[in-house]
Amino acid sequence: MYDPHQIKKNFPILDQEIHPGKPLVYLDSAATSQKPKKVIEVMAHYYLNDNANVHRGVHVLSDRATETWEQAKNTVAKFVGAEKDELIFTRNTTEAINGIAYGWGDHHLSKGDIIVTTLMEHHANLVVWQELCQRTGAKLEIVGLKDEAELDLEAFTKAIKQPGVKLVAFAQVSNALGTVNPVEKMVSLVSKHASQAKIVLDAAQSLPHMPVNFHDLDVDFLAFSGHKMLGPMGIGGLVVKKDLLVSSEMRPWFFGGGMIQEVGEQQASYSDDLTDLFTAGTPDVASAIGLAEACKFLTNLGMENVMKHDFSLVAYAFKQLSGIKGLKVVGPRPKEFNRLGSVAFVHNQVHAHDLAQILDSEGVAVRSGHHCTMPLHKACGWQATTRASFNVYSTKEDIDALVKAFDKVNKIFKL
Amino acid sequence: MDIYQEALVAEAQDPQNSGLLTNPDINHHETNASCGDEVTVTLKLDKNKVIEVGWEGHGCVVSQASMSVLSEKLKGATVAEIAKWQKQDLLPFFGMEEISAGREKCFMMGLRATQKALG
Q1: What ipTM did this prediction achieve?
Q2: In sequence order, what are the residues at sequence separation of 6 or more whose Cβ sits closer than 8 angstroms to the Cβ of residue A412?
Q3: Residue A347: closest C-alpha in chain B
Q4: What pLDDT, in 10s, does the model give residues B98-114?
Q5: What are the respective helix, strand and coil percentages of chain B, to the nearest 5?
Q6: Contacts of residue A234, Cβ cutoff 8 Å, sequence gap at least 6
Q7: Does the beta-carbon distance from A352 to B103 stay under 8 Å?
Q8: A370 CA to chain B: closest CA distance, Å?
Q9: Are B102 and B32 in contact (CB under 8 A)?
Q10: Which residues of A are marked as active site?
Q11: A114-118 and A165-171 as β-strands: parallel, antiparallel, unpaired?
Q12: Distance linking the first and last C-alpha atoms of chain A
């Protein structure tokens, strides 16, 4: 039985008053999730007991650190349905997507090529491609939405049918709309109409909320952030299909220590061990261990259970918030797991920042602004939205507190 | 301290000098990238002194109230004086001594826009 109240006990940070008499109601998990106590403990344990640099020592501590790091990499790779060698640790999703641009895009794109992405992308999955297009002369094509909520699959099909499509990049779950994209269908469309194109999946907002399996999804690249899935800040991952790594189609984009075979004064040869090849410099071992612990925590809960819980919160929040006068929830109406992670809304009289700050005065932490999706907000005519977002520890009572806090909004604005 | 006092909300809901001037000497548009708030300031000058102000904006009550109070304060001030104004020159109008880091950009948008316009 999935009980978020019991799960919440693993997150000490959530047990506090944020203003006198106002307990914290944390509804900003899409920006960053809180971390279970165990995640923080394993990281502290590493620094208190096992810290040494990896790979380049023969002493016991270095061996211990190396073994712990390798195990962590194995655990995280398994969690996303990949082989250990297919996972490259990065700082976050943004760095992972930049890695694709520098390690693959710069070597394979040129004038006349097309990158297809969508209007609902986070800036991380848009600005990187704008820059790559500037460098290579490739063209960026943005696929629009239907009803300001879901990807326009007809337009998507039309876009990928053009000759010259080399890269197709999209999110599995939108951070601003909560929309769950039909990844399987999109992948099959790409393999049918643009079989030469590589597929990038931004899984930053899906991995925390649903089962994700890299091999089953059959995408070429998958990017994610640890801190949104109960892990520490400063670690994330880029998963790359093994044949792209083995064939050197995907190349390292960071160079220096740890990734070399032999170094001369004017040139160097690089490691044939794939993990070493993509680990230039000292890795963040403690964060890798913390992320692995977060993966274990989620595995113990069961990602199917996590998804069901999350969807029930999204559906409940959508219904409750839609009942508030003047409020419109943006994104798709919840139905059969078509929406996960968050509900964002606009008020017809109160600005998003004002809403967020008044809600905060009642202890409710939400986010306001464009959520790193400026083109989406502009296209939909929203100056800014306010977003409540969830994770494994979120409860219906949290949503009730959010709804109740609107009494104060109404009082201040005399609505 | 709760910034949503009646004075601030009332100021934003019934702003002073709202509406653009028809033949301004200066017309400047400014946006706040972090939240999408925007303001257009129009000014008429007599030598180095502001004599008329009109503005239009969309945004939170903090940015709108701040711009409203500023628009009244601008009248009669010299360009050199305005260039020196800081948040401390506006906070007392709302009975505030400080503004949180998260809202400072909202609060300062009007003043920054005006200073850029005159700069």
Answers
A1: 0.84
A2: A358, B4, B9
A3: B60
A4: 888 888 888 999 999 99
A5: 45, 25, 35
A6: A91, A92, A226, A227, A284, A287
A7: no
A8: 6
A9: no
A10: 372
A11: parallel
A12: 41
